[in-house]
Specification:
The chain is mainly α. 55% of the residues lie in helices and 3% in strands. α5 crosses α6.
Length: 215
């Protein structure tokens, strides 16, 4: 049996469509959709998806004695504003893609969180820019980058953007909420459906205010 084309140590047991060569099962598991782009047709990627979702959802579960993940964000108007910009693309993708699962949302939020963390490092690791991108995670990152706090008082010339620490705090809190709702069924849409209903209520209230406002 041939040797793995990636590690050159173990026996190759899987034909990798991303590399066009055979690799061992350990390299497949470690590098899958991390170090190279795996096509959606790859059966090993398809088979691993439920496991990856369950693993992502079970990480860093909030302690029972902790306050609700969103409480500290909602008490800060500035952070609540950023949180709404993080959740909006999740809601949009959830409406456009009925097949999107809570587990995939958690993976997208983890991707965005990891990218924000790495953005604070001066050293850029070789090959980092070549790694696969999470489309939903990138949409979250773009919305965060574009978000500007629209407070009641804005000082002239002040940059109302958000710091890396603020972005991480909001992402961690939303991640905790998503994991909590997805824990019982990562392949379901408990979190996504709740998010869609939340934005529908906001849009409904906004519409009523416009109708009730004096002309």
């Amino acid at each position: 049996m041939a040797v793995c084309s990636r590690c050159r140590q173990r026996k190759s047991k899987r034909d990798c469509p991303a590399l066009g060569s055979a690799i061992c099962s350990l390299c497949c598991g470690r590098a899958r959709n991390k170090d190279f782009h795996c096509p959606e047709s790859c059966r090993f990627l398809v088979e691993s998806k439920p496991y990856q979702e369950r693993r992502a959802v079970s990480k860093k579960a909030a302690a029972p004695s902790s306050p609700r993940p969103q409480d500290d964000i909602l008490r800060d108007e500035r952070l609540a504003w950023l949180a709404s910009h993080v959740e909006f693309p999740l809601k949009v993708y959830g409406q456009r893609k009925p097949e999107l699962t809570d587990g995939e949302v958690v993976l997208a939020l983890e991707y965005a969180r990891d990218r924000v963390e790495k953005a604070g490092h001066v050293l850029i690791l070789p090959g980092e820019s070549l790694k696969p991108r999470n489309e939903l995670g990138e949409a979250v990152l773009q919305n965060m980058a574009d978000c500007r706090y629209e407070g009641t008082i804005i000082m002239p010339g002040a940059d109302q953007g958000y710091s890396r620490d603020e972005q991480l705090k909001v992402l961690e809190r939303i991640l905790a909420s998503a994991r909590e709702l997805a824990r019982s069924n990562p392949s379901g849409r408990n979190y996504i459906d709740l998010l869609i209903r939340h934005f529908e209520r906001i849009e409904g209230l906004s519409s009523r205010k416009k109708v009730d406002s004096p002309s």
